[in-house]
Design a protein that fits this description.
- By secondary structure, this protein is mainly alpha-helical.
- The strands form two sheets. Strands 1, 2, 3, 4 and 5 form a five-stranded mixed β-sheet that branches. Strands 6, 7, 8, 9 and 10 form a five-stranded mixed β-sheet that branches.
- β7, α36 and β8 form a beta-alpha-beta unit.
- 49% of the residues are buried.
- The N terminus is likely disordered.
Amino acid sequence: MTAPGRRSSTFTRLLRHGFTDPSAAERLLEAPELAPVRDDPVLLEALGATADPDLALHGLVRLLEAQSGRDLLDTVIAAKPLRDRLLGVLGASAALAEHLARHSDDWRALVTYEPRDLHPGVAEFERGLAEATDPVSLRVAYRRCLLSIAARDVCGTTDVAESAAELADLATATLRAALALAGAAAPDDAAACRLAVIAMGKCGGHELNYVSDVDVIFVGEAAEGVDETKALRAATKLASHMMRICSETTVEGSIWPVDANLRPEGRNGPLVRTLSSHLAYYQRWAKTWEFQALLKARPVAGDIALGEEYVAALEPLVWKAAERENFVADVQKMRRRVVENIPLAEVDRQLKLGPGGLRDVEFAVQLLQLVHGRADASLRSGSTLEALKALAAGGYVARADFAQLDAAYRFLRSMEHRIQLYRLRRTHLVPEDEADLRRIGRSLGLRSDPVAELNREWRRHSSVVRRLHEKLFYRPLLDAVAQLAPGEARLSSEAARERLVALGYADPAAALRHLEALASGVTRKAAIQRTLLPVLLGWFADSADPDAGLLNFRKVSDALGKTPWYLRLLRDEGAAAENLARVLSAGRLAPDLLMRAPEAVALLGDGDSGGLAPRPRAHLEQEILAAVNRADSGAHAVTAARGVRRRELFRTAAADIVGSYGTEAHPAEADQGALVDRVGAAVSDLTAATLAGTLRAVVREGWGDTLPTRFAVIGMGRFGGHELGYGSDADVLFVHEPRDGVDEHEAAQAANRVVSEMRRLLQIPSADPPLLIDADLRPEGKSGPLVRTLKSYEAYYRRWSLGWESQALLRAEPVAGDEDLGRRFVELIDPLRYPPAGLTDDAVREIRRLKARMESERLPRGADPKLHTKLGPGGLSDVEWTVQLLQLRHGAGQPGLRTTRTRAALSAAAGAGLMPAEDAATLDEAWVLATRVRNAVMLVRGRAGDTFPSDARELAAVGRYLGYGPGHVGDMLDDYRRTARRARAVVDALFYTG
């Protein structure tokens, strides 16, 4: 008897053997059924060797309770093979323990241990199911066969690939048995048709899970002398009955769902088609993913000859799939859609579909099969692991990558098997409960700290998959051109070209030349670039113009490759390489800015350079003025200012591209308005700082420290509204005021010289982009003087000001020069732009008339009005004129409307009740989208434009910037038209009739 407070020796032994609830285990060991072996150390050691000793003991006691004699107990103690297999199953699967408790003689299926039982095939499983006469007995026989597969699996007699193949063979035998039952129930239907069952997915690939949908396609033909329509009707009945036999739940549960949704037209298509109907569909209508699915097609039941005809007829089409337009984009789009559909709470636990999961390996292997299987029949395997092995043998995948991916895939599949085996439920989620994780870890041989070791191994293998699954496509391309590993199989030149074309490269020959230049040799530079390029190539391929990305990378590397910090930046700073890849392949503007001074690459990193965050205007102005003060001439000073401007334009463009595309670490910015505001503010601040520096340079060159007249630059239009885009001119007014004692004529001459010299210096051809100054919004337009005194502006506006000038002044804001003069200019114009009495009816009619005339006269000939972002219906002009009319009418009484910014004025108008909040949101959405399109056009083409590009690749690049994946250009244009149409309806109500 154990003293109170002390643990029994049994309790201690149970703990030592891995039991987590020794008290409960002690009680179970006291069961009368275990009395003869209660103290037998063999039993405890065998239980301790299982994945879950507590679960195994509980299952054993239940099974013994169902026995009528001592056969089972005696055999368990005497026969180690049975003991290991039976207890192994009981410790890994509560579902199979339940089956054994209900069918207490089925343990005998584990007794025999003949060679044929070690690796059974379809024939052995058919014998195991032969006595089934109805769906219920078929389920019992299926579980009995499953017992033997699970036993070999958990005992290590078979590896994960062999277990998956056995599960597929058992599924084949089960489909045949179910079809036989369906045929026996409807012999007339069976006689009227030939029906072939084609296994797809994991069953077709000979790599099935314990619990998985079994994907099938049905092919039917008429028996001799039978009408085809009647035969297809009979075949459909047979196929439907067969699916129900497998899928429906009975007292013995279900087997697994049979899923026929991979058939032509999916659920909307007929369940059974003739071979000619299948062929016609795949020749004309099938999508890329349907050919990808056919990689695993295998006839398994019914009329095998018909099934083989089906596979033979479709095989040539499968191996031509990689020639289809948008082939890789289609495959990658399907992969992205799978990831996007995972609930956020499950992403980190998704073993199959999440990043670094099983599907990443499977997609990568299938893509390479489709690209290279056309010319190499050795790659045409339905099994992921066999195909991966063949790809490595042929040089299509680097051997080191193959070894790591093979190990990772086997580990992840083993985890998946153990997770499903426990309850025999279809799931790919790693459990969160520690007891479940402990059982899984122990079942995989992780015994010292099962939970921690399992998590560590799982994360390690997932990381390998994440890191390698895209490199699979690109690393062999480098091996093909660099040829650094003699004796290893490598891609031929033709295979390399095929792969590049399939991955979206339009000029594979040029791409291979770039790769050879970047990756060949034994220098440190070449070695680091060989490490970086597989990842970079994947990011380039994710863009609309991979060729440009690779070419631009070569240019940057040629310029900076001997600079130590450049390669170190790309290698060591996580964000830099991906940011660079996005920037180099997103269009012309950012790479052009970078090529003029490649050292700006440093901005793409995470270090001390400030990264991609926009710099405040005060900091920009301080840097530019310091550079101007150091220069020995006005020209050199403005050159320095323009250099800062170019670098900061690159920073802004790069941040915009990265924010729009997103990165692996950070998704794309969801708030499109925030992106627009950041670009507008950054470019406007930069333009203001550049003008301030140029003004300082010109004054210092011509007059020293003090100009004879006070001088201010007033920003107008988008400049004054902090809404400049990459291609915008700087709309300005120039105002001056003679200093005390200075002759007005002398002051005017000085002011005009300043304006003329500023414009000249900012437009001199150089490596830096010009800054065009547009003063056409001045009084009298192009006919009036470029610069006026404050008194002259006052006199003009008092006597001659027109309605459009008051409207233009709504965006006026001082940006450079004398701050006091700028403030007094604003005080002068405030009564004009915010008239105390609002607008008269005549003034409103005149504004509407001008707007209508502008719409009819200024739209470029041949342009599609519905896609013109500035002058088209619902475009920028519509939104801005609507907002500005409200500002003119109500600005005097509503302080919130006294802003130069369109979006802020819209928000204030809604807040003041001048328009419904929904209408304000509609106009805001349209304005933001139109502005984004204009920014995208400039980024992609390198020159400004108000409408979508006509070139297909440029249009696709605009789509990528706006968040539309490959193949969705039509959706982008439809969305723009829809957004603009809704905005125009609001404009009609508020501007023309409100």
